[in-house]
Amino acid sequence: MNTLKMNHRGTVQLIAHRGVCDLERENTAAAFMAAGNRSYFGIETDIHETADGKFIIIHDDTTTRVAGCDYRVEETDFDTLRSLKLFDQGSEAKRADLVLPTLEEYISICKRYEKVAVLELKNEMKAETILKIAGVIEEMDYLASTIFISFSLNNLVTLREAYPQQQAQYLVHKIENMTELLATLKKYHFDIDAKYTCMTKELVEEFHRNGIKVNVWTVNKVEAAEELEEIGIDYITTNIIE
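^ thats the sequence. predicted structure below, dont judge the formating
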């Protein structure tokens, strides 16, 4: 199995969702390196804080789906989470090399392959947690190549207050009040990262008129990706399309 290829016009940038997660177990070094070895612009992942104040890469609030054991991530210490072996992609078998990565491991892979890190701040986080995450990336000299995303506006506002120039995208499931949304994005200098089914050519044009870049998630059909590129989308987040 390989990635699905779209017919690029050269105007859209593709972001590997949780790595190339249709090929390798999501949010693992294997998935990130699969993206690194391909033409993706960026590699997206998700970060949680553990019970002992460390950071771990995982999407869900629990480990059940990826490891078959039920630990709540934010109520569990780092060493316990790190010790878990994960299911191989599409299998009930576990691989010894598949573990939950650290923030540093994820950034190191993005840096090695020269990919933009697209980092989702999961759940509502304390200000000191967000600043600590940004600080780790800053120490690794990769903030300029990192885009923060979150469904929590408060998370992004906290980031913006400390890092006025940092790239950030506000995640939304749907667009209900465009006037209010535009005002918020412009106030804090955020771009938008929306579910792809709610995006139209008219909305894209309105965002662009206001200096806002548009990312969409999660697009796994080539025809849909090509249509989105036609209406001017800036970034497409995908599990499998290249």
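The CA atoms of residues 88 and 95 lie 6 Å apart.
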